[in-house]
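Bug: token stream looks shifted between consecutive jobs. Job 1:
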Amino acid sequence: MSRREQLLAQLAGEIRAGLGAGILRVGIDGVDGAGKSCFAAELAHALAPAPLICASVDGFHNPRARRYARGRGSPAGFYHDSYNYAGLKAALLDPLSPGGNRRYRTAIFDHEQDAAVAQAEKLAEPPLILLFEGIFLHRPELRDYWDYSIFLYVSPAISVARCLARAGTPDVTPDPTAPEHRRYVEGQALYLAACQPEQRATHVINNEQLEAPFIVSRDPDAEARRRDPGALQGAQAASRSQRPGPDERCPDCGALHADGRDCRAWFDECLALEFSDPAYGAVHHLTVLSYMLQHNGYSAAVWPEAVRLLARFVEDGAEP
């Protein structure tokens, strides 16, 4: 058995162990070119004969006019406008969640034809596993739906190279900093900065070497949340109760915060405002991303994308 097959068997065993009498919802996340579709297909094979519903975020795009409303090269447009999350929740995620009616559809829109899909509803019969793959799966709109999630890591250089190979465009530069890749590379950087999928996923898997992927991180909070959501919420509440007072230094940055909030509390409030009011603007993005770089312990792999994103916001100014 190859290293890839061994890893898939391990993950399949964990997922099967978590399947009770209901529906276990599994998300496979990662940047463009991370290998999500192939990984999901191989994981589905490893899960056999467990009953599965397999679906992709590609069945829930927004219409082309909405996707490119901010410009075809806009990173913010890629991150904010690519997918119809309300439609995804109504057609698939809510019906397959606890208390849902189990009547679901796996697609509502064909982005190549730029047209709605008239797919008949099906009735899910538990126990079963929903295996869902796509980008941006740890956004605030989606992350609480996953009972178990995987984030596939690849570098920006590998991401771009794989996307070019898939598209059959060998004459395009593979340099991830090139202007033609700005929408996708910087849009993904915005997602990584805002949503921290590597901190939220059950497993982070390095998928740069397809024959030998490996687990690089395991988030204990994600595991606790999967086993006992109430326990994690209690731990988070206890953490909030221990925030510094007005005359105490923040444990994150060492600064004195007049209102007693630590950096994490301040960042969470800023991020909530961003998602409730996208027009809050470029200055807000600069502030939040600056905070993330300084105080949130980013891995070195994220720094170049975040710095380029900051530079673009300084240059463009008006783009949220």
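Job 2, same session, no restart:
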Amino acid sequence: MIRVLLVEDDAVDRMACRRALTRNTDYEFVLSEAESGHEGLQAAHAQKPDCVLLDYHLPDLNGLEFLAALTSDTGEIAIPVMMLTGADNTTIAVEAMKRGARDYLIKDVEQQYLQLLPAVIERVLKERRILAEKKLTEEKLSQTEAKYRSLVERIPAIAYIAELEGTHRFLYVSGQIEKLGFTSEEWLNNPEILLAQTHPEDRDYALEERAKSGATGTPLRCEYRLLSRDGKVLWFRDEASVVRDETGRSLFLQGILVDITESKRVEAELREHRYRLEDLIATRTKELAQVNAELRRDIAERKLIETELIKAKTDAEKANVAKSDFLSRMSHELRSPLNVMLGFAQLMESSTPPPTFSQATMLKEITSAGWYLLELINKILDLAALESGRLVVEHEPVCMAEVMPECRTMIEPLAQERDIQITFPPPDLHLYVKGDRTRVKQILINLLSNAVKYNRERGTVEVALEAVSPERIRISVKDKGPGLSPEKLAQLFQQFNRLGQEAGSVEGTGIGLVVTKQLIELMGGEIGVESTVGAGSVFWFELPADEPPRSPAGQDKPTAAAGKD
């Protein structure tokens, strides 16, 4: 059950939202409503809904003021808010996202946003759950690390983590290092300090034992002398083991330095007085056994903590994978609202009466930004699909006489902005290619877009269609732009290479031609370019020729040969 609070002053819009949520069978929505901003704030604090649908225009507050009132002292909004706004308020919707709204929907005339409403609410709530789980995992990891550090600091020995190679630089050392007159920071900041503070007579032995442990992976257990800051000689027992990752790769050396100076002194006395001090030997042996038992318990607890740390790390990695998957799917879902936005903007541009100058300016900005973003998303997704081999194209008859007008409709607004004249082949030239209709349109649109963007002002673009052989159909796009040098032609189909146009005024990504080339080759065709500096360029591509499909009544459409007559 999903509890939704709708803050909307328009009764018709409230009824439309209520109907859309009630009819949805995938989720169970419980809807409460508020007609003003203040009423909505009271309901939000009292009911604690799962999601708030917020109209920007309210009689007492606007959407941004509502968000500000809902924001806590920590700067966060506990309840996910989704802004509902008109097509001319996209900038405000983006500002609302910056101020804490989780998403927004544009109220289009066709009310298509109502169809998206249930799924968008579910996606917003899923994102909230993922973020909450990630935060909880991070908190648990922090608590586990604090518990581990507290336990290590209580061990009556110097706990450390060191590199496996070289001078075995310490990566961590507990506060017990103060026994040698040093702080932990001094021990960590000097990679040579372990070697420098090792007694000269023990250095080679200690280095050899550490190297042997790192090479073989066997536990380290050796005794050597360390020099304190004031020159005092102390004996230590070094017990450590190599820590490995899940693949068995050695990571670092983890161990403890136990001060055995007193034990060494006792051993010397025992060698001198062993016959007279047998009782003392037994006592000391018992004490050492107790110390070893405590150490074993501490090691067991440390291993348990390590297991908890590994689990916390795994949980965090799973949360990160979920986040990455969410972002990947978001890039796909961005295309639907962008298409709606662009279609609505084009309808408004051609509406009667025509839009005002201010409206036309805003529509132009919306169209330009929308096309650029949609083109960028599509190109990136296509390139990824092509490189991974996941993109599948159809091989069916495609009538170029039908494709050309569709491409013309899509490219003419861009051409009119720069006063570019585009000529297309006659509409009765019925030539068929074998390929994927959608991808053929995409290829031609990309070539036309480049011809317009990189053309000179008031230039021309000529589109030609011809059968170069019975098996091949060629489509060419000729412009009057600056042309390309041989050096630039050699770099033309390289990823993200804009041929020195990165700082220019023409927007681009440097992957459009790369995607175009791979799509053409995937359909069994080829692409080429002929260019003269100062005169312009001709981009052409060829695809396999095909026969027109037979009509249901058994009558064939005009053949390619008939079209050329």
